[in-house]
Amino acid sequence: MAATIRDVAQASGVHVSTVSRTFSAPHLVNAETRNRVLAVAEDLGYRPNRAARALTTGRTHNLGLIVADIANPFFPPLIKAAQAHARLRDYHVFVADTDEDPQVEEELIQTLTKQVDGVLLCSPRLSNRVIERLHQDVPFVVVNRRLKGMSTVLMDVGHGARLALAHLVALGHRRIALLSGPAGSWTSREMADAARAVPGIELTVLGPNSPTEHGGLAAAAGVLAAGVTAVLAYNDLMAIGLVEGLAERGVEVPGELSVVGVDDIVPGRLARPKLTTVAMPTEAAGRTAVDLLLQLVGAGETATPALTTLATHLIIRESTGPVPP
Amino acid sequence: MAATIRDVAQASGVHVSTVSRTFSAPHLVNAETRNRVLAVAEDLGYRPNRAARALTTGRTHNLGLIVADIANPFFPPLIKAAQAHARLRDYHVFVADTDEDPQVEEELIQTLTKQVDGVLLCSPRLSNRVIERLHQDVPFVVVNRRLKGMSTVLMDVGHGARLALAHLVALGHRRIALLSGPAGSWTSREMADAARAVPGIELTVLGPNSPTEHGGLAAAAGVLAAGVTAVLAYNDLMAIGLVEGLAERGVEVPGELSVVGVDDIVPGRLARPKLTTVAMPTEAAGRTAVDLLLQLVGAGETATPALTTLATHLIIRESTGPVPP
DNA sequence: ATGTTTCGTGCAACCGGTTGCAGAACTTCC
DNA sequence: GGAAGTTCTGCAACCGGTTGCACGAAACAT
Fold first, then answer.
1. Alpha carbon of A12: minimum distance to chain B alpha carbons (Å)
2. A295-305, pLDDT tens digit by residue?
3. Are residues A146 and A258 in the same domain?
């Protein structure tokens, strides 16, 4: 069994409170005593029990990070950045995957609530109402969704969409399809709003679609039926699936149709043709979200929510080309 | 502030112990009382604090899952399977990424130890000695590494390597390179042992290499220098990188050189050419690992470690072909 | 009617820490 | 030499639950 504070206290001949202070308020204990306690603790392999500590202090020094799908390559860089950034501040991050299921998401948040000081919600699928209710029990930072009263990190995908469309227009495209994502997605709506406001193009919005390779594959027929010369997809996975689906039908990218994705995930960089895509600042988002969350945690009840918007940019690769004659 | 057990007790006019039993041993409390307590609890939004509960029961109902790199597409399917499987058994899984850093790995395990009932260690990079020390504080199940005295889930990559080599031999290849992985990797050693035992081929072992796309890219020159006609890579990421590196040098796959990967990750299925690969039973491994871990957790001190080996198989796609004339 | 079970609940100690308060020992100051 | 501070440590209550034990009431057996 692991050593407890009482074992250390007994072995070093002091009261438990002295041991406790040795770790949580060292300046309050005499240097000599402190060293003795530390030596004994080291010897016994004692490590303060964080869960027990949390019971009295109300601080677990853990953060929760909830994502819809770890297998979506968009998330891991964000997760890694958040974890690394949190570690620097002596916080640990627990990641949980909701499997795109709102009910699982809610359950996970409930469970995490008491075991973490705050939760990072990435592209949540829950309704605003539920999120607001859960928010009463634990501080949140929401990534890629706009929720009033909560700290938020947004990636400026509207700007990215404009860049992508400008690129396509410059190549001569006019009839363009937007392959949208899941129904509740803020990102998807944001892209659609931005795209509709672009003058001089004839936009067809197709969707909602599953934000996966399979979703893109399934959308290929609809894209061809729409009679467009270029497509902006909700994300790279869909773009890759779409290219696949088009190839099955003998349609070449970018020869006959141009495709732009969003996210700049690794598989998109490896695909043939390499995807032109809107790069998302995922690492920065992870770090920023942790910063905002720790700010909230530190401030307690008096916290004021903050909003950060991060820039996106276009990476031109091989999946876009001039409009066919 | 969230409601506590005392709030519920007071509001429903019973002692806290009755409330406690209502949740953790319902059969011990009168149906009428129970319903009243449940109603009040519902009303107050009370949820038992798992951390506090763990303090007395010694059971957190959480599991830890430690991986070297979430961004490696090999892991997410395993993680998702483990999470889903654990949820069925009323357990939650906390995932942590070590960033391939043994020191971070050790620190994470230490932190998790008190907050989970057991830890799933996937392809750990720590030394045996350290793992054994940490094992004294919390039950482990190790995936893809052989450690005596601990429950283990292995994927039979040796068999997979033999299948891959047999496939290459059948295509006429004799001079074959094995692109090995990280130095401490059990999988890598296992593959090498299996490959060396295959008769009738001339094997060149190259490595160790970083188990990433970049590692494969960097190995391209060495592969060409080795004068082989086929390569078995440690994993798909490396295989993809290698194909990339070969393309840069004007070498075609599979026309001039055949490449086999391991893992059957999604990017490998999407790459051009589509990768021939050894499929790993990642979902099964995740589920099995959770089962073994819960078995250990349930058994307490008396637990006997178990070893499960899961089969692998070869998927032939487009990156392998007959030896060039 | 009495003795024995069974059932339901309360009491209080406990899990492993933290922390406000009190007091002992030692300084410092006048 | 005594009052007033400092510095350090111990005491005990507390965080939010769980659980062995005791006890009263009701149900059952004789």
1. 22
2. 988 876 667 88
3. no
